[in-house]
Amino acid sequence: MKRGDSMGILFNPGNDSYAKDRNYKIYIDKTMLLSFLNEAIGTPGNCIAVSHARRFGKSHAAGMIDAYYSLGCDSTQLFEGTKIASDPDYKKYMNKYNVIHLDISSFWDDYKENIIEKIVEYIYGDLQEAFGDFFDSTKKLSFALMSIYKKNKIPFVIIIDEWDCIIRNSEDKELVHQYLQFLHSLFKSEESKGFLALAYITGILPIKKIKDESALNNFEEYTMIKSKPITEYYGFTEDEVRGLCKEYGMDFESTKAWYNGYLIDGKHMYNPNSVSMAMRRQEFDSYWRNTSSFASINTFITMNYAGLKDDIITMLSGGKVMVDTESFQNDLSEIYSKDDALTALIHLGYLAYDEDLLSAYIPNFEVAKAFQTALKTGSWIEISKSISKCDELLMATITGKEEKVAELIELAHDTYTSVLKYNDENSLSCVLTMAYFTAPAYYNVIREMPAGKGFADFVFIPRVNAGSRPAMIVELKYNKSADTAIKQIKEKKYQGALLGYQGKILLVGINYDVNGEKKKQHTCVIEEYIS
């Protein structure tokens, strides 16, 4: 890596990164984050740490911050017409600071053994080029920055992307300690109180909890669990996604099913990368595809903690599970309980968190697909085998193959019976959710939908991409008969759940019967609704 390479240090960077975002076909204005940061400059709250899942807009925000504060460019035209341009203090802070921007992950790739030394070397190289006459490279970095500040009275904004890369990837405790001390010198030393206008660091994990380490305890933290008041500046809000769907002619409800679900401080947030890809390609798909994602999921869901497997199945079947997020040490190598494993998945973006219910859940169909793929490559062989039959079950139902439907639901029952207490209609409902695991790609699947004179157990409403697939009303029975289920649909007029629907509607009755020998048996009856 050569000094000045855009993958490493950038001293007083230009605005190229933000210009690319600004000129991109899909641009959502998040510039009011800058107003929040402006209020923090020169205050005790001027150190900001943002830990969000990958592809949630952290790096995009860092590029915007470069463009706004850096002396290395004039960004007036770029910010014209943006929300921040109407802020009374807009010009007061624009392009007025010396900016240092580090990407720790790029250093880690090249310099694992002497990474801190190399970081300092690259900073000194850029500073020597800019301030050769009065820059003293024999001093430690914080003193060097302070001496520059004393001479030109221009404070520093320091941005660190992937700040937690060393914490996440190194098993060398001494290296981690040295790195934290380096950050302490930059952000909490006496010198930094003079030269530091603003510190903005981003990572995947919140700041690591280390006994007797105070390197970063002066940072205000914003995470996947709590990020008020800047929640809306990372990810896409529901209103923003609704606007994109209208602009690009994409179905909002389908977009919602695929990419919604993250509930942060009461706000519904969408993965911006996935939404942008869906809009641009005009196709709903899982755009969160990389091997490390599946490996991360497997690492945590296969841990041998009591109750963890039960909780994973509950969430895969659409439920929520309580989780204590406080004990997590913010270190993926220090997982000591089921709660730690689930909390790690929340911070990585593979689970969402409902603060009101103190519960974790799988946020959307895209993430559910990531779990599905992870299970195929992991040790949950039987569950993977059952999930692999989901598409076959859906097609068997659509084409009216009653015996095949009963057979595949029996397979799902045998798979999940060790986890679920399979003795009532609610348990059957959970199994059905797992059995039709892939149905949300084509259907809005609603459980316990108010309809007619009661509640339909399941209603499958076709999405715009469902083609000729019919709508379906599914009624479940326990120790009765599938015919009884069909009769109940007709008597209680559950087809009212699809009032105004013009396409084909199937009525599906499923019964689970336990005879005297405790032999499990499912039966199914499928009829086309005739109005």
TrEMBL record:
Species: Anaerobutyricum hallii
Superkingdom field: Bacteria
Span of domain AAA-ATPase-like: 25-209
One Pfam family it belongs to: PDDEXK_9
The name this protein goes by in its record: Predicted AAA-ATPase
Signal peptide start and end residues: none
InterPro entries hit by this protein: AAA-ATPase-like_dom, P-loop_NTPase, PDDEXK_9
